[in-house]
Amino acid sequence: MIRIDFNRLRFLVIDDNAHMRRIVRTLLHGFGAREVYEAEDGASALEAFTHYMPDIVISDWAMPIFDGLELTSMIRQPGANANPYVAIIMLTGHSEKKRVLQARDAGVTEFLAKPISAKALYQRILNVVVNPRPFIKTKTYFGPDRRRNSSGNYVGPERRKGGKSETIKVQPLLDKTRSAL
Amino acid sequence: MAKTPSSSRDGAKVERFADYDVVTPTFNLKTFARKTPGNDDLLFDEEAIARAEAALNNLSSEFDGWMKSELVRLGEARDRFVANPEAKTRAALYNVSHDFRGQAATLGFPLAGRVADTLCKVMDALDKAELPVALITNHVDAIRAIVREDARGESHPIGLALAEGLEKAARELTAHLEDAPSIAP
Question: Are B53 and A30 inside 8 Å of each other by CB?
Fold first, then answer.
């Protein structure tokens, strides 16, 4: 079995709703986390991100000042802050496919639709801890590799040009997690 | 005082291709995981999950109070929108409804969350169009009724009838729209 050392991980939880922040904090402390910092909007989140250097950011989408997508884009600026590779879990009431794709294209690492559960949150954290993905940098994108699987059914054009690494093969999650450590 | 990272996060291996780079950071979070003896078939640390669920259960004594304050916010946002249905009051109502759909189930009222979800989808589907005030009001009243009647769980008959009735009304209202979000539980 794989155990995560939650007591060494540093979290930043961003949500404009104080009740939701308390729920997430409670779950993280239940997992064993000690360092859980909070922010209630995008601007204070960016400040907290710079100040606390979290290992994992758990962010809501809809927030005042600037939202979770804009925050993600700001964090995913190579050279603009100390850790543009930080794991970002978007925790949101939005669940439509269009929204999931928007979040992916902004550079979030994992997407988790509310209502939250201990198991679903644990699974997302496990994934970002055990299965880190390489980052892809193009003219229009910087973030975790959006190709989690290579699909034999894909019939469209190859959009990445030039090289052996056109598709980065990713093992199925279950196998990968078991063999990762 | 600012925190310092537990390990250097500057380094990364970069592979360059024609129109993209593959960047593999030298630091990753695997250092926070370890394999322990035991059942290899267990993917999750069930004990950690059980601890978190127990912690949430301890917190649940506060949920009724939270739900009351969320209901007040929802009622106030609805009243402001009905009195003055402009972009600002509409956005405020959407935000409260969105909060509701995200957390009502955690607070014990999944059917209230389901109604809030329908309300958000109606507002998404009609986007800039004028919202039918009566239908909006019905959604808010339904959420309040579900909580007032203590209709917890997903199968309370009154709550379920309200949720399904409003979903049907919302589907009929948005059926002619292209790209309307699917209004289904």
Answer: yes
